[in-house]
């Protein structure tokens, strides 16, 4: 009885303390300028379509001009009356001045950036031994520096407006390091650390930062990763979490960002990982904090069962490989 009263009291105090503090305002993007890097494909394109459906003016940035034009035509079909879509070709991981010029050009056409979604990125999945040293650098350039460049270019006008939204697409591989992702995980973990620091700097400016941790999602990027020699171990481990649709992942990301949530995740595994790795990240939902308070210990134990099943997969694959090796006489 005493335990129940104590727990209820703690819950009440937490909820009271948090409900005012942890309720970022929901914002609308109707008539606002939303810039989406990697908006020509996959999750980024789905985000662009959904932003258009919500009445935003949309800019998409990527390298391949043909893919950009095709996506632009597709997005045009979802625009609300009087709204526009603009596309610019740019290597976001390249020279910062180029990225700044491209964002300034987009702003001169569609107004100051209100929301920036950093979806541009790519992955490589191979064992550490099989990865080239340059793969590690590429992953940082494609996933981390591309987001830094775009964010540095877009942030001045957000600060001037004293409002906005910034989204970084990390990955579940940015929450847990798995076999085959030593290069990719490094870059996606880095994004989260940077985003935590940035959100602390941006909150006084009424700019909210969201880090999304998508699960495996059915996109061209996912399929090219599969074809590029993804280890059997990585495939078998990832399969346990299933494959999600880009539209569903985009819907969650957009909604979480508009609500001002810091952590954005999809599915049961996504919720579990976000809870377990909440650490000292910004608290932007009272419900999340209460669940973290009660479930962290239990989830850690459940996580150990997951890890031991992953370790079994890795061991089994090694045995199979060893058995396939020609026997030395
Ligand atoms: N799909 C998944 O399973 C999954 C899971 C977790 C996280 N994610 C993350 O979610 C994001 C989107 O993934 P996706 O699967 O939708 O990818 P995708 O289909 O391969 O699309 C990637 C987009 O980024 C652009 N891009 C890549 N590098 C670029 C660069 N250096 N400069 C400018 N644009 C660049 C690509 O266009 P160009 O090639 O023409 O430049 C394309 O528009 C990525 O950050 C990815 O790491 C994906």
Uncertain segments:
none
Number of strands: 9
SSE series: HEHEHEHEHEHEEHHEHEHH
The share of residues in helices is 55-70%
Summing up helix and strand content along with how strands pair, one would put the structural category as alpha/beta
- CA-to-CA gap between the ends? 72 Å
Output the number of helix runs: 11
CATH-assigned fold name: Rossmann fold
Described by strand count, sense and barrel closure, the largest sheet is: 7 strands, parallel
Strand content: 5-15%
Mean pLDDT: 94
Total number of domains: 1
What does this structure look like?
It is a single chain. The chain is an alpha/beta fold and 329 residues long. The chain has one domain: Rossmann fold (3-Layer(aba) Sandwich). 57% of the residues lie in helices and 13% in strands. It is built from 11 helices and 9 strands. It has a 7-stranded parallel beta sheet, with helices on both faces. Strands 7-8 form a two-stranded parallel sheet. Helix 2 links the parallel strand 1 (33-37) and strand 2. Helix 8 packs antiparallel against helix 11. 40% of the residues are buried. The mean pLDDT is 94. NADP nicotinamide-adenine-dinucleotide phosphate (NAP) is lined by residues 37-38, 40-44, 62-64, 67, 91-93, 119-123, 142-143, 146, 169, 171, 214, 216-217, 219-222.
């Amino acid at each position: 009885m005493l335990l129940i009263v104590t727990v209820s009291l703690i819950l009440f105090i937490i909820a009271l303390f948090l409900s005012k503090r942890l309720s970022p305002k929901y914002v609308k993007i109707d008539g606002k300028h939303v810039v989406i890097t990697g908006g020509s494909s996959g999750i980024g394109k789905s985000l662009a379509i959904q932003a258009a459906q919500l009445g935003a003016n949309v800019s998409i940035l990527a390298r391949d001009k043909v893919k950009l034009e095709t996506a632009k035509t597709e997005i045009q079909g979802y625009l609300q009356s009087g709204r526009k879509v603009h596309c610019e070709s740019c290597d976001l991981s390249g020279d910062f001045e180029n990225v700044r010029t491209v964002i300034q050009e987009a702003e001169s056409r569609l107004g100051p950036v209100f929301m920036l979604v950093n979806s541009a990125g790519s992955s490589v999945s191979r064992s550490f031994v099989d990865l080239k040293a340059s793969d590690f650098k590429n992953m940082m350039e494609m996933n981390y520096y591309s987001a830094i460049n775009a964010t540095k270019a877009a942030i001045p006008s957000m600060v001037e407006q004293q409002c906005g939204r910034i989204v970084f697409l990390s990955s579940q591989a940015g929450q847990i390091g798995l076999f085959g992702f030593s290069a990719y995980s490094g870059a996606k973990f880095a994004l989260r650390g940077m985003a935590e620091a940035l959100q602390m700097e941006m909150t006084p400016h009424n700019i909210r930062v969201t880090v999304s941790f998508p699960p495996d999602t059915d996109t061209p990027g996912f399929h090219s990763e599969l074809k590029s020699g993804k280890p059997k171990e990585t495939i078998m481990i990832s399969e346990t979490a299933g494959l999600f649709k880009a539209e569903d992942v985009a819907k969650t990301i957009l909604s979480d960002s508009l609500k001002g949530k810091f952590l954005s995740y999809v599915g049961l595994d996504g919720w579990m990982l976000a809870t377990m790795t909440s650490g000292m990240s910004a608290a932007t939902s009272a419900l999340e904090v209460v669940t973290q308070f009660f479930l962290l210990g239990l989830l850690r134990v459940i996580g150990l069962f997951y890890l031991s099943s992953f370790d079994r997969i890795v061991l089994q694959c090694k045995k199979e490989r060893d058995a396939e090796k020609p026997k030395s006489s």
